[in-house]
């Protein structure tokens, strides 16, 4: 088989590293280029010593990539930078397909983007064209797309849990509590990411103002046919990988908890990576660590008329690089699960 | 000063250990007896090697304690066993005062107790007499009591956050998400408490059926003058100590978020251990580790008309042994903060 | 390709779980049976929820396995039990090949076995026949064997580091300090394995009396042509997976640190899983987590005439289940690295 | 009692924070000034939210401190900066006593200092005057000193274990393996200190070139009456606090392991903070967390004629701020243990 040649932009971050890991295991992928501006010229092993055994190209700059030979691009760049570089890529003749993992193309509305990211979008046409890459829900559009915007990690977990239920709950009263491992904060040098500050501790952050809010509101609002707001409180907990969302919802339209279960069971019956657990079994991040799987479940709340919907993913895989590969598979007509079959790592 | 001679029952559990730690630092306490049935005869250092430098009595059985010499008892026994042993203590002439850290005397209603704990209460008169030991809210009764039932760790954090707000929120629609370190599960040998199962992982537990629910409902219901139910979902996270509750509430009776802040500020203005943080500062367990302090704060929710109230404690101190000492101080007419002045340990 | 049908005995322990994980990714393996006496009848997912997405047989007892259909057995049983069950397997007509991960067949000398394990060996003929499964050093014998005894985790790391150097160092003065994650202690319910006891802490154990000592002494003694003893001190550190050995050696026979480097470079030039790091780069467990790789390096000691040889592995993979698969590959004439190509998981 | 007024220089690092914590509990100390150049003007709570309940001065610059009112200075500044600022302090009339926690005054020999720290010492007279602050061994000199150089964390643990044994072992063949929590690396923003890099991992560092080497060699060489070198390999492990040294020594001069035990027992019989554990009990960092205690023990090695001496401390307390307070107590004629009586925090 002729392999598909990929470039990973932003290859020195954790998302980039996990893309490399998954791409190495993918039978149809050849890693043709790794770009990391500030590490350009270094070997991949100098940046990521855990790839000691792999054959990988050296880190390069975006501009030195041999673009005509690239079939697909995975963008792991910071927002803002991402839209500019991807716009230049699409200006080339016969551009590669692009799977963007940044936030730049997730929000459809330019004003919402500008309000949350503090600057107007610099690639409005592409923003309008981009397909939101929540694979299980937008597979047909993704398969046709040349630019896919992969969801944020929290929206991935929350939307997998809630999107199938929108008609059976009150969409205006969704409360989402979320817990994330520290890789969600990336590799940036901030005091709050030091081991000494994070270990043996927990705290909420981004209260009332997290950028994943408008993303969830866009998708849930589309499904509900309404403008809505979600209550969302993420917490940082002392682990590397993993994300768990515990959502509290009001049942609506006569729906029961059993109805919610049935909706999820039906919706994900054929999904290779989303698993409704047996009744009563609580989702746990250790069920999915290192894998592209999502486990979820529904429980009656103690307050009558309410339910809890809980989902767990690995934020770096289903919440980021794994879902990116899953979208890549669809975009290139490959089996959806190709290269993503690894079982979770536990303990 | 003549010291007050205490006995700690259940001295081989983590709560017992933290009581020993705090009692060693208390200028008015003499540790006269440590009871731990299965470790009786062992030195305290054999059970707790971290007390290498302390002078402590050997572990004993409850029956071998020289009861007439004991002024106060701290009960750290499992529920069920606790009520029986404490009943026998009160059958003695001139019994000591008792601070019970078990669940046995927290619920006022015998039927509620029986329903949640699976057996009728064996000491109904004492159950009726016991005072609920949330120090900041029931100090006067505690000061007069001879039997105080210390609150559970989750109720302590949740009630400190919510009790002053009951008239300003809808008490029927309180959603409490909680995160706890593993000491909350005690020292029992369960697979789910192994390092390998807990580390690098998070999961909810006790969904819809946690025994701290009726305790919170009793106290909130009393304050609201209504029968109510709370939505409560605890999660186990990979740290030793610490507990954080993130509650989502509906504003009511025209109250604003600023009103909630003002209510908390007023209520805890003179409380030595409960601290309303500056506006916008998120509570974090690292602010209280190892100490009897509670930090809390209020935030506007993104959904209009709702607010987030967040509190953090050390589950073994303010959530257990520290609050027990605080109650002891009141019961013996000592300054409320005596022996509890240690600053948090960070990192 | 006709798949090789395997049975995993002791499938409810961590070693069993990692064998399942690796076997699921192995293109030539079919998992035909999982035995776990106390969990017999349960689904694999009930025992290991992280295999939610896999097709696996239910847990069974050893006796109910359809033995004539089994081609290979992986034994993850406790020592003692292992030798008895494996002896019965070899009593069958046309027995399967056996890869044993227990300690039962590692020590060649029956008296040494009896002295360290407290009872005489119950399968002396098999003990004599078994091949020691340190793949990189005994590949030819392993390829011919019908019973392979996989090394302990500490011996794997220490012997990979030291065996090639025996002629260049004083084999009577080897000091091995080792650090291990908690999975090395298995899934057993001991107080010392609780999260609360292990987290935020470190301690040495098995001082002067660890059962991996005679195993290292046997292999190093064979290579040195001498009876010898090693100084070995393992420490338990708060992580799940990973093992690091820091050995201090006296140079001998005129050898230099550069000679040690050259010996390792030559010895492992073609080894797919053992990697001599660039000069000056310290081995770290994060370089190998979840993979079958070993990274090692040599450093001059500050005391003249001495050197440090340091190696890191994942104790559950190269130190256990991964090496077992590697041996299986040789025993069945498959490529040595088949099914083990997964890159490490970092972070 | 008239309190002693102290200034803490470098109050925004972890060592500074732990000094504040301990000073708050010290009955004879008044915290008069906190200096942190880059945080000057901020409240102590803004820098250290865990001191929410404490009365503390705002962060200031060194130059704005009201020096004539200061009785004692604790220096927690980086090496290099420390010597310059302390020299200026001693240029003042009636200077305060200084307890320096930096490396600047630990090495007596100017050439050794220059070789290891890359620049000549800028305060040679003070360097010659400074007393090495290993309290248990140099108490008399410390009591007379106006400048004490507190030992590094590793030297503290290693020297407490080894100094009493120097005549009974071969001082030229000491192998020290050490494990440290991440607070040992301070609060600096380095990639290697991120949670994601440290958690679930271990690695050695500073191999062959750690600055604590010459410090240990100076003290051991003094005691042995010889020039010597030590083998020392520190490892970073995923915990906040704690340090464990496992030393391997050759017995000499006819000494036995029992002799080593006796030497330690005699030497520390009256030491309030150094505890020889019962025979066979392994030191563990959980025995000392948050406290000024050191636990140690001796074991026979498996190689005849050798022994293992193992010690554990909390690197931030006995290895840093606690020992500084202990020295302060001696310098001001206070009881050695004043303010340091807190029992360890476990779990």
TrEMBL record, chains A, B, C, D:
<keyword id="KW-0028">Amino-acid biosynthesis</keyword>
<comment type="similarity">
    <text>Belongs to the NAGSA dehydrogenase family. Type 1 subfamily.</text>
</comment>
<dbReference type="InterPro" id="IPR000706">
    <property type="entry name" value="AGPR_type-1"/>
</dbReference>
<dbReference type="GO" id="GO:0051287">
    <property type="term" value="F:NAD binding"/>
</dbReference>
<dbReference type="GO" id="GO:0005737">
    <property type="term" value="C:cytoplasm"/>
</dbReference>
<dbReference type="InterPro" id="IPR050085">
    <property type="entry name" value="AGPR"/>
</dbReference>
<dbReference type="InterPro" id="IPR000534">
    <property type="entry name" value="Semialdehyde_DH_NAD-bd"/>
</dbReference>
<dbReference type="InterPro" id="IPR036291">
    <property type="entry name" value="NAD(P)-bd_dom_sf"/>
</dbReference>
<comment type="pathway">
    <text>Amino-acid biosynthesis; L-arginine biosynthesis; N(2)-acetyl-L-ornithine from L-glutamate: step 3/4.</text>
</comment>
<keyword id="KW-0963">Cytoplasm</keyword>
<comment type="function">
    <text>Catalyzes the NADPH-dependent reduction of N-acetyl-5-glutamyl phosphate to yield N-acetyl-L-glutamate 5-semialdehyde.</text>
</comment>
<keyword id="KW-0521">NADP</keyword>
<dbReference type="GO" id="GO:0003942">
    <property type="term" value="F:N-acetyl-gamma-glutamyl-phosphate reductase activity"/>
</dbReference>
<dbReference type="GO" id="GO:0006526">
    <property type="term" value="P:L-arginine biosynthetic process"/>
</dbReference>
<dbReference type="InterPro" id="IPR023013">
    <property type="entry name" value="AGPR_AS"/>
</dbReference>
<keyword id="KW-0560">Oxidoreductase</keyword>
<keyword id="KW-0055">Arginine biosynthesis</keyword>
<dbReference type="InterPro" id="IPR058924">
    <property type="entry name" value="AGPR_dimerisation_dom"/>
</dbReference>
<protein>
    <recommendedName>
        <fullName>N-acetyl-gamma-glutamyl-phosphate reductase</fullName>
        <ecNumber>1.2.1.38</ecNumber>
    </recommendedName>
</protein>
<dbReference type="Pfam" id="PF22698">
    <property type="entry name" value="Semialdhyde_dhC_1"/>
</dbReference>
<dbReference type="GO" id="GO:0070401">
    <property type="term" value="F:NADP+ binding"/>
</dbReference>
<feature type="domain" description="Semialdehyde dehydrogenase NAD-binding">
    <location>
        <begin position="5"/>
        <end position="145"/>
    </location>
</feature>
<feature type="active site">
    <location>
        <position position="153"/>
    </location>
</feature>
<dbReference type="Pfam" id="PF01118">
    <property type="entry name" value="Semialdhyde_dh"/>
</dbReference>
